[in-house]
Design a protein that fits this description.
The chain is an alpha/beta fold. The protein has a 4-stranded mixed beta sheet. It has a 3-stranded mixed beta sheet with strand order 2-6-5, with no helix packed on it.
Length: 146
């Protein structure tokens, strides 16, 4: 809470200039209307699993979450589990955010493997949405080199 007298707040706004002060006010009003500046208190999740032969080479591009890689000696294939996470200012927006998150599978030239890419929509934070993808990759350990 601001304990400065109203005259000090007015002086601060005047020093900022009318455009900057107006933007500042709009941001503060937006924070108040979306449950604080967190803005996305609702969450929706959906898990998906992709599998591939153990010898598959792949690259994972994920700029919207974490990736954990686990070497499992009992694994006979590569298991890629992804949890789509959508957050929103309402439950409906959180559910929409989950659906908007996409994954692309791209074959690389010359059989060098597959690129798995997480793709999120552009500029959805202003619409009260956030996207994340949490990956867990489980694969057999790499063979020991001699």
């Amino acid at each position: 809470m601001n304990h400065r007298p109203p005259s000090v707040i007015r002086e601060s706004a005047q020093r900022l200039g009318p455009v900057t002060a107006g933007l500042y006010g709009a941001i503060l009003a937006g924070c108040a209307s979306t449950s604080g500046c967190g803005g996305t208190p609702f969450e929706s999740r959906r898990a998906e699993v992709l599998t591939a032969p153990a010898e598959t080479a792949f690259t994972l591009e994920n700029t919207v979450g974490d990736v954990r890689v686990v070497a499992d000696p009992s694994a006979t294939s590569v298991r890629m589990e992804v949890i789509r996470i959508g957050k929103g200012s309402t439950q409906q927006k959180a559910a929409e955010a989950v659906e908007e998150l996409r994954f692309e599978l791209i074959d690389t030239p010359g059989n060098e493997g597959v690129v798995v890419k997480t793709v999120q929509p552009k500029s959805t934070w202003a619409a009260g949405k956030q996207h994340a993808a949490e990956w867990v990759i489980t694969a057999p350990p790499a063979p020991a080199s001699s």
